[in-house]
Design brief:
- The protein is mainly α and 118 residues long.
- It contains five helices and two strands.
- A two-stranded antiparallel ribbon has the order 1-2.
- The radius of gyration is 20 Å and the shape is elongated.
């Protein structure tokens, strides 16, 4: 079991972020006899997934929806699949945009290097 501080350090996020995720019902840590938050390996894996979704620009509202569906059980699997497929499509579009921008920048950089004689 991990404390909120240990999880924050392990995942490179703040304790504030963990409390926010709890408030938004994205994660539900266990509580010890003193009422302190405790996280297990399952929580860590879930939070790593949530962090990756955030890093890939999934809105908190959609992450909350996904978490809610997950808590409802297996009968929501099709809805969860749809959310993830839509997000994957969004990521692929963003990757295309970034690839195109990278190519454009590479061309400009090459032009400037030629211009200044590098």
């Amino acid at each position: 079991m991990y404390t909120i501080g240990e999880v924050a350090e392990l995942l490179h996020i703040s304790a504030h972020t963990l409390r926010y995720y709890e408030k938004e019902q994205i994660v539900t840590p266990l509580r010890d006899a003193s009422g302190d938050r405790r996280y297990n390996e399952s929580h860590l894996k879930w939070l790593q997934f949530v962090i990756k979704l955030k890093e890939t620009q999934m809105p908190i509202a959609i992450i909350k929806k996904y978490a809610s569906l997950f808590k409802e059980g297996e009968h929501t699997a099709a809805d969860r699949l749809k959310l993830l497929e839509e997000h994957k499509e969004s990521i692929q579009k963003q990757m295309h945009i970034l690839h195109t921008a990278d190519e454009m920048l590479e061309h400009k950089i090459s032009s400037y290097r030629t211009l200044i004689g590098q």
